[in-house]
Amino acid sequence: MSDLNAINRDFQKYDQVRKSHTYRLAENEADEFDDDYEIATLDFGVFLHGSESDKARFADEFATALKEIGFAVLTGHGVDPSLYDDMHDAVLDLFTSTSVEDRMRFRAARFGSVAQGYFPLEETSDIHPDLVEGWVWCRRAFDIPQEREAPFRPEDFWPRVDDEPKFRRLVLAHEPLFKPIAQAMFQGLGIDPNIYDRKLTRTNFGLRLNYYPPMTDDQDRSGAGRLFGHEDVDLFTILPATRVDGLQVWNHRSGKWVRMRAPYGSIIINTGDYMQRITNDLLPSTTHRVGKPTDGSHVANARVSFPMAVYVWENEMLEVLPGLGEPKYPPVKAISFHTHSTSKFYGDDYAVEDVNSNSSSTGEKAIEARSRT
């Protein structure tokens, strides 16, 4: 049940990695902010195009930043910032020019591990009434190279079929970054940088489009946040810098919140539960949320973001990587790990107990169920 006063410890039974701190899910007057802390901004071009010594230096700085707070900002990644401008406008158009009835035809359902589809306002999860509409598409929703059991039908996933190639541009721009980002993390930890190359080849992901409409006066007074405090369940998330601020990051060392400020055209990287698990807690899955922007524009202007969560396929095993000490966690299949963690958002019946279940048929059943409504 949604609760404005909920704290994360109310749901700790769902955590699949160690999370010992306590925080209120929505921004609160009692929260403390560390305005002097700066999240590292690094030039990723050094790793992509530099010498071996350049790469080693970048990897060390990257891993140090992620160990410290679980977040880093990357410039020099090679994606044209004009693409992000196009995506910003496309997200606004999608949410403002399609009807609620049309969006609800694609109400979110589980596809493999990932809850894919539309999330109405205040229904990002069952535990908190967030003031955001969201829409998630995983790899199966795009006409890109992958294994398929049936021909691709964009109408199964998209309210307007011409939106698929539009947002596919973002997928094709970010996918080449998956391996080098992971390689830099692993090299910075002193292990084989290519250890996940196979798993990250044509791997699954979740592209989430977030639309935060302007708040009404009642919403502004309600105490609800734009997006509740949470940790991502993935390996890592790629988030292009937003035009409107509001992203807040928990600093587990100081016990204070840090306001994210990232330069235009940069991408924000944060590590998630998968990564914390396989790195034996070295790279934390860091708490973050979206609060009201410091300029007060939330009562007049919408906010848009389009993070891309990088997963492995549901049948892959998540194991502590070699060379990182005595494993704190046993091996687990990704679908079991993922759905048990995210069942705190979607209900206990979301968790998959049978790790050998056929995830493709799950997706097909979700499509069939939507087509009957």
Structural class: alpha+beta
SSE order:
EHHEHHEEEHHEHEEEEEHEEEEEHH
**Spans with pLDDT under 50 lasting ≥5 residues?**
355-373
Distance between the termini: 25 Å
The helix tally amounts to: 10
The CATH fourth-level homologous superfamily: B-lactam Antibiotic, Isopenicillin N Synthase, Chain
Oligomer: single chain
> What overall form do the CA principal axes indicate?
globular
Rg is 20 Å
Beta-strand percent range: 15-25%
Output the CATH class name.
Mainly Beta
Would you tell me the overall average pLDDT? 90
The helix fraction, in percent, is 25-40%
Might you state the CATH topology name?
Jelly Rolls
CATH architecture heading: Sandwich
Number of domains: 1
Question: How many distinct beta strands?
Answer: 16
**How would you sum up the major sheet?**
10 strands, mixed
Quick overview:
This protein is α+β, with helices and mostly antiparallel strands and about 375 residues long. It has one domain: Sandwich (Jelly Rolls).
Describe the structure.
There is one protein chain. With 373 residues, the chain is α+β, with helices and mostly antiparallel strands. The chain has one domain: Sandwich (Jelly Rolls), CATH 2.60.120. It contains 10 helices and 16 strands. It has helices at 45-49, 52-69, 81-97, 100-104, 163-174, 178-188, 217-222, 273-278, 334-346, 359-371, and strands at residues 41-43, 71-75, 109-111, 114-119, 133-138, 205-212, 227-230, 236-240, 247-251, 256-259, 267-271, 288-290, 303-305, 308-310, 317-318, 332-333. The strands form 3 sheets. Strands 1, 2, 3, 4, 5, 6, 8, 11, 13 and 14 form a 10-stranded mixed beta sheet that branches. A 4-stranded antiparallel beta sheet has the order 7-12-9-10, with no helix packed on it. A hairpin with a 4-residue loop joins strand 9 (247-251) and strand 10 (256-259). 43% of the residues are buried. Residues 355-373 have low confidence and may be disordered.
